[in-house]
Design a protein that fits this description.
The protein is mainly alpha-helical and 116 residues long. It has helices at residues 13-30, 41-51, 55-67, and strands at residues 81-82, 85-86, 107-109, 112-114. Residues 71-116 are annotated as: Disordered.
């Protein structure tokens, strides 16, 4: 079992309490209301920590960064899901696995081949 935090950085009580303290300090200093549901909350916290005169915000953000995992470098490719389970993706066919040319089918009439 892993002792680290899960992939989503706001899924732990310690991190949420630190984020709420940061939000309160930012609201007092900048009169801006940040929401936990904001998709870019972590980037907004970093922005206000850089601009802020209060060192407590920077200290809280450093503590959040030490507890929470790093942000992913880029968006992951969407995974195909079926009934809540990830489905293995089939590899794309290469040129070596190209389908064979299809033979032209013969037309039949009452069980006998017919020429066009």
């Amino acid at each position: 079992m892993s002792t680290g935090l899960s992939d989503h950085w706001l899924m732990h009580r310690q991190v949420v309490s630190l984020v709420n303290q940061c939000r309160r300090l930012i609201r007092e200093e900048f009169a801006v209301a940040l929401r936990l549901s904001d998709a870019d909350l972590r980037q907004q916290l970093r922005h206000y920590a850089r601009v802020s005169q209060d060192t407590r915000i920077r200290a809280l953000l450093n503590e959040i960064d030490s507890l929470a995992p790093a942000l992913p470098a880029g968006p992951e490719a969407p995974r195909q899901m079926y009934r809540g389970q990830a489905v293995r993706s089939e590899e794309k066919p290469s040129l070596a696995m190209a389908p064979k040319p299809v033979k032209k089918s013969k037309r039949m009439y009452r069980g006998r081949p017919v020429e066009d």
